[in-house]
Structure formats: structure tokens, C-alpha cells
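pasting for the record
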Amino acid sequence: MPNFPVDQNTFGTMNYYKATLQYDGTGYAGFQWQKDIPSIQNDFNLAIKSIISGKITTMGASRTDTGVHAIHQIVKITSENLIECPTSLIALNKILPSQIHCLDLISCSGDFKPASDTVSKEYRYYFTNLRNVPSDDRRFIANFPIQLDLNSMMICVRALLGTHDFHNFCSTGSNVKSTIRDITFCELSEINPHTILPSSELFRLPPNLTTCYQLKIEGNGFLKHMIRHIVSALWMVGSGKITKEEFLNFLKGPKREKRIWKIAAPNGLFLFEIKY
């Protein structure tokens, strides 16, 4: 195990670890702990505290909203006692709920800040535009049952690249200093979801669903519901409810008091990768 520096505080010498999680966010109110509300962090904390004694705290790289999934979520663990990583990883996965899986557990530096040390985050949103989709098939892929003009949508997707003020593509309720974000990659494509999403007990897809649309977006950070606002606005363009020019006015123009779309459902959104 690497010999990383430790801190001295009221609990004594502290030890630091980095866990990589995957989870199905269905039924959870997001990653972050909330009192008396089901969260990924709460269930992870309960599991790790059941196998490790002493004071333990955790900190995630991304909050992820209610119903949002993760392929690659990073969690820093601060522990009063040493953690035997290989043994604890096996024990954790036996205790964790079936919707959460710990992929990796390693020691890390006490200076590591999982949220603020990120270089970029990549999210992906999956959707179909079928007339009828059984409810059981909507767990990981959203559906917008209207014919879409993909060419117009792709023009708007390309316009998202670069640095913009996304004040018209976020929800209120989060304390941020700025709504300006830098988007380094943004692409809308048609894919076979079975080749993208990992084949595991967590993400079971309908075997006959061999094609869907994927919005892949990477940036230095994202605002509350930002990607779901973008997806919904793109659907408005694709269905002819707003023009490409109107979309660009929302992107480049002044802040609007009201938007003409509802945010897209959370079930199609995945936190896909975090880069440091």
C-alpha cells in the first residue's frame, strides 16, 4: 500500500482512500446524503461502517440528481483506522445494496479533493423516440415519442461546444458563483446501448433494444439539471416546437425568467467518467 501522508486531528491519525462506484440511481434521491431520504452516499456509508470500526467520513466527486445513474463515481474515504483494501472491497460488495457496486478501493493522499480536483466530467444521456415503450424498458433509457429532426438537433449540439453562460439551461436551488461552463466535447449519435453500457447485474437492458440515441457531453463542470435541460431543449428543436435560432438565443442571449420546456427525465442520464 502506498505510504501517503496522514493528518492529525481530534480523532488522531487519519487514513485516506479512494473508491470507484457504479450505481443504478433509480429510487435514490441522488448521491449526496440527506436525512431520512434514500441516497447512494448513505447506503455506502452504512456498508463501509459495518466492516470498518472508528470514525469514517466520505466525500463524492459529483452529487448526481434524483434518479441519475453512474458508471464512474469517485468517493474519498477518511478513516480513523486502516482499511485493508482488497479484503474490504470484497466485503463491501457483499453488503452493499444490489443497485450499488464498488469497482475499486485504493489508498490516496489526504490532499485529494474528489470534487474540486477534477479536470473534466463526462455525462451521457440515452433516449429513444418510439411510440410505445414498456415501462420496464425505461429504467436506463428515456423515451420521447415524437419524430425528430436529427440534423437540426446536431447543429444545436455543435453550438454547445466552447464556453457559454448556461443560465437558461439550469434549475434554481444550487449555490454557484457562476453559471459559465466550458464544454470540451458534445456529440449526438445513434448507438447500440449494449456495446456502451457495461454488461452487469446493475444495468440490464432489454435484449431487443439494439439502437437508441446518445448525447455525449464533457466539460469542466455542470449546473443543476443542466444536461436534462439541454436534452429537453434539443427535443423541442427536433420536434419543431422551437427553431434552431431560438435555441441559440437561449444559449447566447440574456437570462429568461421562464423556459418553454420541462426538464428531461433523469432515467436516461449517466455520470460516465471523471478525469483528474
